[in-house]
């Protein structure tokens, strides 16, 4: 399963459309909410709320909770590093490994690659391709990518 993640050009809050890479159909819509820190609601193709990525406030380093429905299923944390970005996941035994700039990275479970993420450059908005090995991991991989993108946006503003 391949997802195409594209931020909307004109929106007040974080807003994204997530497409099936091969068909161009919208699979998910992400809508930001006015809140302290980032709060991203993920809707399915029919507009039903299915997941949330919510930044914890008042933490030393950025930390995001991942929710399926109302249940918190894990956390992703930015770690203090000098050389390259590093994120730790408390979720499914997953790990995030990336290059120096963080433009290309992978989510692994220790034995296999769950997803490969690459940012497409030369676009007006953030645009990523998320190549997920098992389609059942697509939504969870998307939540990890959203948290990392939100952290980068906070750092750059």
From TrEMBL:
InterPro entries in UniProt: LOR, LOR_sf, Tubby-like_C
SUPFAM superfamilies: Tubby C-terminal domain-like
Residues passing through the membrane, by range: none
Coiled-coil residue windows: none
Cleaved signal peptide residues: none
Domain of life: Bacteria
Recorded family membership: Belongs to the LOR family.
Name this protein carries in UniProt: LURP-one-related family protein
Source organism per UniProt: Vescimonas coprocola
